[in-house]
Amino acid sequence: MDEYFVNPLVLAILVPLLGGIGVAICGRIPNLREAVTLGTSLVLAAVIWFLLPVVLAGETIEFIPPEMVEGIGFSLSLEPLGMIFALVASTLWVINSLYSIGYMRGNNEKHQTRFYICFAIAIASVMGIALAGNLLTLFFFYEALTLSTYPLVTHKGDAKAKAGGRIYIGILLTTSVAFLLPAIIWTWTATGTMAFVPGGILAGAVSGGAVGILLLLYMIGIGKAALMPVHFWLPAAMVAPTPVSALLHAVAVVKAGVFTVIKVVVYVFGVDLLAGEASASWLLYAAGFTIILASLIALRQDNLKRRLAFSTVSQLSYVILAVALFVPGGIIAAALHIVAHAVGKITLFFAAGSIYTASHKTEISQLDGIGRRMPVTMTAFAIGALAMIGLPLTSGFISKWYLVMGTLDRDSMFALMVIMASTLLNAAYFLPIIYRAFFRPPVVVKGEADDHGEAPWPIVLALVATASLTILIFFVHAPLLALAEALVKGGL
């Protein structure tokens, strides 16, 4: 029995679950409850960072309990891609926990104990996805993540929140049960295994048009990746409090989606199989279509969180576009963009929540001159926006650079044109916000107080931390690049 608790992969899942129990026990004492939340996040981050040198050294850590039925069982395994996802989620949970304390208290949110419990269960589910050693394990934790985040989406409990929650859980459960599960069953019947194997398991088991159909089932089934037309859940979920939006868009849900896309392409299909099948070429065009259309929709949104939501839909498909190049450079770019988007987008959502907490403003048209009252918040927002555009000195430049290199390796003019057009669109819907905040005079509305300053210090500290990470990764990305290159070396 000790091996269940000593194995670090099991610990990575147990720590947030135990933290959730601790939060429930301490729920009547807010300071202690939040100390447990923050402490648990720090312990999890320590466990994951402890494993980084092991993975960089090329060693493998596994946990394989007895099979439930012959040939069917759960397994955990840590490989470079899972290490990247686990690092992102565990590190940002620490910062998000600090932010949540300031936000939930600053807005006098109800049901805070339930909020922290569900958050902990969601992070445990993320760890299970990151460390999954086969399709069964991944599917189990993928569904657990959907169910554990539903109460967070509907946290406010009003009619709008409930309606958004129904769209959220309806689309995610329908896509996974109607498409992802049949794809997994098809894979198992064709190959006799659900294990993740470097180079894939489907070569020789499916061919021709069947490859394209199976790929379609997987891509639609992985609804959390928000590939159009199954993206509607993401803007609908914006009814949630900002810490939840940050969880959905940066730390957990959408990253679970694009992580699963990369995992399936590399370890189930195999890049060589997909590169040689014309029936798989549709994915590149579907990703490009999503990138451009979501950017155009974002451009028309006045609500700040909705603009960020459609930006996320677009940015997620950068990962899918990179994967769909079916070349090593594309896989590296996809892995790096998981990190780049996470730190940049969480900064943007943190800033949106900071604006709401301090001023109760939600619309972009209301933000004239707000940078003068909230200079730290809006400077952090500007850094996150520049990262999403992909400009130098930010994490977004690194992933976009490798994405461009991947398009040149594939000699894909279509992908290159999509990247260029979307970069201009990103600038078109982010730069005007920065201009409004810093270069337009404040608009004083009669009857409204406009003498606010920055949000509470935990919120400001958290968004400064993520904005700093966005810049730091530009200069110190060698470990992440080493993991991405190890993924290519060991998985292709």
TrEMBL record:
Keywords: Cell membrane, Membrane, Transmembrane, Transmembrane helix. Residues 132-424 form the NADH:quinone oxidoreductase/Mrp antiporter transmembrane domain. Coiled coil: none annotated. It is found in: Cell membrane; Membrane. It comes from the Bacteria. It is a multi-pass membrane protein. The chain crosses the membrane at residues 6-26, 38-61, 81-103, 115-142, 167-188, 195-220, 232-251, 258-276, 282-299, 319-340, 380-402, 414-435, 455-483. GO terms for cellular component: plasma membrane. Belongs to the CPA3 antiporters (TC 2.A.63) subunit D family. This is Cation:proton antiporter. It comes from Paremcibacter congregatus.
